[in-house]
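EI: anyone free to look at a 209-residue chain?
SC: sure, send it
EI:
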Amino acid sequence: MDYEIFIRFLLAVLWGGIVGIERQYRGKSAGFRTVIMISIGSCFFTLMSAQIGGHANPDRIASNIVTGIGFLGAGVIFRGDNHVNGITTAATIWAVAAVGMGIGAGYYFAAGFASMLIMIVLIILPRIETWIDKLNQTKEYSIKCAFFDNATQHYQQLMNRHGLKYVLIRQLKDGSELSLVYEVQGHAKGHEMFVEIVLKDQSITRFGY
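SC: here you go
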């Protein structure tokens, strides 16, 4: 029995460590040691749940792991200027906890297979994600320029010319200056060409995205 527990902890370190290396390599907030600790903790809680709860209630403690991991995952999610960061890391923490629980319960093959799938998602799928992102990117453009007739229509025509779909979020005229904020969707190449033209526009005093 003690030998079996030893194997389970070693497997928790192994599979948690493999995923942790990938997160550490990418500089994520939950790195090598953190992911290993999550895997070990989930494994140990599952073991203790079976021992303390006995046959009548073996999931007494283990059922609360998901709740606890939810709080831990929320700690790595933060909002940037235009997007939310850390969701993938939070999902990884959640998935690794499930791997640790599987090992603690003795489901070695399922836990190992799940770990391999996690690695495939983290290493291979980002390439597909990058390709998809090039097809349709969403950006927020902030344009401040000297006011002139049909200024808004001028920039909207530029977006249309490069196949970009836009929504005018904010428009403000302050004296002789005009400020525009757009949410724009379209192919990466269209964004690049639009930005290139706007950066050469002498009437624009400030541009950001």
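EI: The beta strands are 78-79, 84-85, 137-146, 165-174, 177-186, 204-208.
SC: 👍
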